[in-house]
Write a structure and sequence with these properties.
globular, Rossmann fold, two-stranded parallel ribbon, UDP-galactose 4-epimerase, domain 1, alpha/beta, binds NADP nicotinamide-adenine-dinucleotide phosphate
Length: 306
Amino acid sequence: MTQPHLLITGASGFLGSWLCEAAQPQWQVTGLYSRQPGSDATVNWVQANLCKLEQLAPLITRLKPEAVIHLAALSNTPYCEAHPEETAKLNVDAPIALAQTCAQQQIPLIFTSSDLVFDGENSPNKETAPPYKENAPVNPQTAYGQQKAQAEAGVMAAWPQAIVARMPLMFGMGHSDSPKTAPNNFMTRLLEALKAGEPISLFHDEIRNPLSAKMAAQGLLLAVDLAINQRHQGLLHLGGPEAVSRYDLGVLLAKAQGYDPSHLQACSQDDVSFTMPRPKNVCIDCSLAHSLGFTPPSLAEQLAKH
Ligand SMILES: NC(=O)c1ccc[n+]([C@@H]2O[C@H](COP(=O)([O-])OP(=O)(O)OC[C@H]3O[C@@H](n4cnc5c(N)ncnc54)[C@H](OP(=O)(O)O)[C@@H]3O)[C@@H](O)[C@H]2O)c1
């Protein structure tokens, strides 16, 4: 039996590499990249610049996927802050154009958004405070968050059957053969400091519900299944099971990987002056995803050596 065909944009990126692996053998995967293909030889790699919007519909018509997961984005938040117009092409215009094409061709679409659409403030009103439910009002504080919020609205307007999956802070542990970590991300730097026994300061008042990219990939594949079977459409929160500070996450990582956590120091966001806003607590409530079958293991298990 031939497998159904899944198109993953941003397949060469951090989450994309985990998703390509998790999707097979159930799916035959085509992976889009812009500069360099990924290393998975079983993926059909196709080069495309998604900012060239006029090429999108012909590309989808040619590839004929049964479902699309759209990961491609420019997610470096300081870069988005400094270059809002340039980055909006990929972060806003491309997902909306893709949603229009998928709507025309009736192709199930999953678009990955971010917890940074929320402001992270502890409002006394439960509806607008973390952990945020899907219907909580967005109030992004950064250009990247604003772009994701704009794209979410545009995608859902263009293709109401699409699923907009809001992702939390992700990390790349849990792979036995070749740990895939995003270069220069928070967890990579933290792990290097732990290995070297170097002191590192971590915020005790910046709260997230992080998730391994391995589990995020499972969540996105579940979302594809839900979209295909029309069991869900619109917003879906795919966060981790626990709300932790960056400091707590560091301690958990150290313990899970067998390093001494005593080099980790807790500090406050108030001790640092930032050049751009840094939301305090953007935890997302994932009870909806849980009720639909998304049940990632504890954070300690996700961080453990396998
Ligand atoms: N990582 C996180 O913690 C996190 C948290 C919340 C949400 N998200 C969202 O999850 C998604 C995946 O994130 P990630 O961390 O895996 O991102 P990433 O590692 O930065 O990967 C970005 C991908 O986008 C592709 N891309 C860049 N410019 C392109 C263009 N003009 N045309 C086509 N493709 C282009 C890149 O291809 P090349 O490398 O070939 O240029 C790469 O495959 C993103 O939408 C991100 O906003 C991530």
